[in-house]
Amino acid sequence: MTNLLIALGVFLALHSVPAIAPIRAGAIAVLGRRTYLGLYSLISVLVLAWVFQAALTTDYIPLWQPAGWQAKVTLVTAPIGVFLVLAGLASANPLSITLRQDARPGAITTVTRHPVLWGFLFWSLGHLVPNGDLRSLILFGGLALFTVSGFALLDRRARKRLADRWDQMSRSSSLLPFAAVLSGRNRLRADGPLLLSALLAAATTAWLLLGGHALLFGADPLLATSF
């Protein structure tokens, strides 16, 4: 359990410290934006692998009884989460997390201005439901709480960065998914990054269901639905 808590703490710190503007700006000034993002992404993946390895080797302490319907929740929410993360990273988005710097927001922002955060939230909560044990509660619950805290933080950073452009840009999107569309402030559209992300999410989901998840984590999601 100690290893899991340390790994999770390092992961959360890794995603909290760069949110401090002077630290992030200083790192980008020294390394360059592209190198900074590349190194940050690599380190994030390595630390996340440590988190999962620590979770898999932590003692199993059951909290609630697993059932087939719980695994079906994950089959719905996890692919949505993967799609939102991929689309968010691949699409230009001045209001939130992205790997692109184009001025015009991508199509995914018509759904929500924080697709990456919503993606992680769908993914983490979807995995929490069928994993009724203490280590999963710490892992997925901790990630979900951290993700929720990011909504206000990113809005505050974007408001400061965009200044007088914030009101106009934020009105064309929304924090809650589809709120801007349902209120008539924008309309759904599609673009290349969104469509490519949908294809990649579908391919990733298929690979995981056809053995990838069992290979990586020792659990078959389809088998769990038959409990």
Q: Which structural category do the helix and sheet elements fall into?
A: mainly alpha
N- to C-terminal separation? Answer: 27 Å
Kindly state the mean pLDDT as a whole number?
89
- In terms of DSSP E residues, the strand content is under 5%
Low-pLDDT segments: none
Main β sheet profile: none
What is the N-to-C order of secondary-structure elements (H for helix, E for strand)?
A: HHHHHHHHHH
Shape: globular
Q: Care to describe what's here?
A:
The protein has helices at 2-14, 21-31, 33-56, 68-90, 115-128, 134-162, 166-171, 179-182, 192-217, 221-224. With 227 residues, the chain is mainly alpha-helical. Helix 1 (2-14) packs antiparallel against helix 3 and helix 2 crosses helix 3. The protein has ten helices and no strands. Helices cover 68% and strands 0% of the residues. The protein folds into two domains: 1-58; 62-224, no CATH class.
Task: Produce a short descriptive summary.
With 227 residues, the chain is mainly alpha-helical.
